[in-house]
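Tutorial handout. Part one gives the primary structure; part two gives the three-dimensional structure as tokens.
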Amino acid sequence: DRPGQILAEALRENLNPSGVSVPRRWDLQTGLRVIRTDLGIQRNATATTSQISVAASFAIIDAQNGKTVYTSSSTAVGDFDQVRDAYATQVAADAARDRALHEVADDMTLRLSLFVRDQRAKAAAASR
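Part two.
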């Protein structure tokens, strides 16, 4: 679906911006949940503000043996105002979702980078 595509593209841009081909060592499995919650409910039961919550759980799988070597999760929240124009509200909702997805991608990138750094340090220590 679209949120998954946005997250995947953001991760590709963050982890391999030049698109360099490298041997596959790990696989990344990701579960994604996007929830919209209406806030600021008026007396007539209409919302004035909404929130988009994005939660991603992910695991790094060793490509050689299929074992999970790392798991973590990332979350982000975006909000937007609802206006009388339905199109403008939808555009604002999509923008809030996209911002939250990019924030999750940035957090995942940091966590994945730390994992790779730790793996390199372990390999260097083992070769000494």
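Part three, for discussion. Residues 28 and 60 are 5 Å apart (CA to CA). The mean pLDDT is 93.
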